[in-house]
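Figure 2 data, in text form.
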Amino acid sequence: MNEHLQKLIVEGTLYGLVFFSIITWILIIAKGVQHFRLGRQNRQFTKKFWGASNLDAAASLAKEIGPKARLASSGFSALYVVDGENHDLEHSWDRQELLERHLRQQIQKEYESLEAGLAILASIGSTSPFVGLFGTVFGIIHALSALSKAASPSIDIVAGPIGEALIATGVGIAVAVPAVLAYNFYLRRLKLASADLDNYATDFVNLAQKSGFRITKPINKPQQTRTAANESNTIIGAAA
C-alpha cells in the first residue's frame, strides 16, 4: 500500500469522524427541543384535563396537541358510542378491552417517536473510538513506511504521520463521549416519559370505568393532526 493511499485513509477517517460529530450534535439539539416541547404540551394538557368536570367535558380537549392529548383522543375515540350504531368488528370488543387496546397502541406510537434517533447516537458512541483507532493504525503504518525509505532516519520523518494518527484517536474519543452521554440521558428521559404515559393511561381507564366505558359527546379532532413521529422528523429535518 503506497504512502499516498495511507494518508488518504487517515484523512478520510478524520473527515468521517467530523461528520459523525455533526450528526451527533444535530440529534442532541433536536431531541432536546423535542423533549422540551412535548413536556410543555403534556403539562398544559394535564392541567386542562384534570380541570374538566367529567369525561364528556374533557372530550373537547381532543383538539389539543402533545403525547397525552393524542393518548386521550385515542381513548375518547374508543369510548364514543352512538346508540344503535357501531356494529362492526372494531366495536365488537368488550368496551374496556377496546379502550385498553387503543391506549396501548397509541403509547407504542409515542414510544417509537421518542426513541427515534437514539439508535444512531448509540451506534456513533460505540463505533467512533474504533474508527479513530482505524485511522491511528494507518497513520503509524504511514510513519513506519516513511522511516524505512528514508536515507537518514530521524524523528522529523515520523513526527507528522504519528501526530495525525494520535489526532485520529483523540477525535474518535471526543466524538464518542457526547454521543454516549446523550444516549444515556435521552434513554432515561424516554423511560420517564413512557412511565408517565402508562400512569396516565391507567388513570384514564379508571375514570372511564366510572362512566361505563362510554361517552356521548363526539370527538372534535383537528383537520390535520400531527403525530409525535412527524414532529420529531420535522425537528431533525430542520436541524439538518
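Caption note: The chain has one domain: 3-239.
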